[in-house]
Write a structure and sequence with these properties.
There is one protein chain. With about 475 residues, the protein is of the alpha/beta class. Helices cover about 45% and strands about 15% of the residues.
């Protein structure tokens, strides 16, 4: 990674990593012909590989010390970012840039975060040191298997759970799983990874109880999504879905249930908590949250009512463009990320989402979730009949126009009045009646732009398309 920049004569680099020792150790092995030095603010500096003693060096003097030192040298500076904004340090680096270039000297700042002063932004190249690869994680697991005599029962699941951890974190997580469960338990490792999520205010590690068995209908959406998970493979885009539809039709329920159905952890991203008061804070929070999401892969990322979290992204906000930049950061990640993260976003009002959020390619599919048909109504009522332990009177009434959430409320009302669904329905006024014009406009917009989430509706739409053809 870094070798090309050294050969090209870059004078200052910034490497972002939480594993400075692993980065420095692995890089020193690959820079033959260079003189490596290591500096930190406590011990000072020393040349690596020859047993040299540590020598004191104030951070203000370090740029000049490096310029006077050996040619073709690489200086690894740990946590130098704490002093990089001091005017004297900025000026010292700028003054010595010609000497660095002439003598083949490169300063490599190693830190977990990047916050460069404006004076050096154009002079410093920022690189990311990747977390351990799957093969490296396999070598960690293999070492523990050999030392303990315990074999991993499902190696792929263990490695999936360990993805996103540093080398030391992976060793500790595997060892702890072994102590607690007497085996390399993927669930224990995933729970430890959840600690990363707790450090991000915008993310929540969601342990939902919902499953597909508690969600009536939506057979087309369920079948399509499970098939996507079954046949996914490297190199084939695997992004996520946008669920547009009538409020209360099970969009959020589906997102919560999918994680349990496929055995992946589910993270919820609260866009409202991304926004901060300081300049650049919101964009940084979004980038940091998405890094955690990538580290948690494989996982599901759930964004509920995305149009509310990004209100104003189309240019109508008065926040100086912060909302647009945060939205742009998310869209870029959604389009470019290669981690196994399946995104599910729900939306009730398409008019508040700009066109770029409904463009195919950003999503694998856009589904429209409408009110349940007669068969789905019965299925939903059966679920709540068992859940609430209520003897609902047969035959079930026709609840056309009622959403799944409204049918649930009818079942609750019936549980309080002896199981009489007809009487209960009288107390629940569906949104399809109270906001009929708005719901009709939503259905008309979705008719040619989305895929129906229910099989009966899908078959009906296919039939109409065949007739039109």
């Amino acid at each position: 990674m870094i070798q090309d920049y050294l050969k090209a004569g870059y004078p200052v680099l910034m490497v972002r990593t939480h594993e400075p020792e692993r980065f420095i150790g692995s890089t020193v092995k690959k820079i033959n012909g260079r003189n490596p030095y290591h500096w930190d603010i406590v011990r000072g500096y020393r040349e690596l590989g020859n047993g040299a003693e540590w020598q004191e060096a104030d951070p203000f003097d370090l740029p000049q010390i490096a310029a006077r030192g050996k040619e073709k040298a690489v200086w690894f500076l740990r946590n130098f970012h704490f002093t990089i904004k001091e005017p004297g340090v900025i000026q010292a680096i700028q003054n010595n840039l010609p000497a660095y270039k002439a003598k083949g000297i490169t300063l490599v700042m190693v830190a977990p975060n990047v916050d460069l002063p404006a004076e050096l932004e154009r002079e410093v190249v920022v690189l990311d040191f990747p977390l351990p690869t799957r093969d490296e994680l396999r070598s960690i697991l293999g070492g523990l298997e050999e030392s303990t005599g315990v074999k991993a029962e499902n190696e792929d699941m263990v490695l999936d759970a360990a993805q996103g951890l540093t080398w030391e974190e992976a060793e500790n997580a595997l060892a702890l799983a072994l102590v607690r469960q007497k085996c390399f338990d993927p669930k224990t490792i995933t729970e430890l990874k959840a600690q990363m999520v707790k450090k991000s205010a915008a993310l929540e590690f969601s342990q939902f109880k919902e499953t597909f068995e508690t969600l009536g209908g939506l057979e087309n959406l369920k079948d399509w999504t499970l098939n996507r998970f079954r046949i996914r493979r490297p190199g084939l885009p695997f992004r996520g879905i946008l669920l547009l539809g009538v409020p209360g039709t099970g969009k959020s329920h589906f997102a919560k249930a999918l994680g349990n159905q496929v055995g992946w952890p589910c993270l919820s991203l609260n866009l409202g908590k991304v926004f901060g008061s300081l300049v650049g804070e919101s964009e940084a929070k979004m980038r940091d949250a998405l890094k955690v999401v990538d580290a948690m892969a494989p996982c599901i990322l759930f964004l509920d009512e995305i149009e509310k979290g990004l209100a104003g992204v189309g240019g109508g906000s008065t926040d100086g463009g912060t909302t647009q930049r945060v939205g742009g950061t998310f869209l870029t990640w959604l389009n470019d990320h290669t981690s196994e993260v399946f995104v599910i976003a729900t939306c009730n009002d398409y008019s508040k989402l700009p066109p770029e959020y409904t463009r195919m390619g950003r999503w694998d599919a856009i589904f429209f979730v409408d009110n349940p048909g007669p068969g789905e109504q019965k299925e939903i009522l059966d679920i709540y009949r068992h859940q609430f332990e209520v003897d609902l009177a047969f035959p079930y009434p026709n609840l056309d126009g009622y959403s799944g959430a409204e049918i649930r409320q009818v079942a609750i009302e019936a549980a309080y009045n002896g199981g009489d669904l007809d009487a209960a329905a009288w107390f629940v006024i569906p949104i399809s009646r109270s906001q009929k014009d708005q719901m009709d406009r939503l259905r008309e917009w979705a008719r040619c732009r989305t895929i129906p989430a229910s099989k009966p509706i899908l078959e009906e739409v296919k039939g109409k398309r065949r007739v039109q053809l």
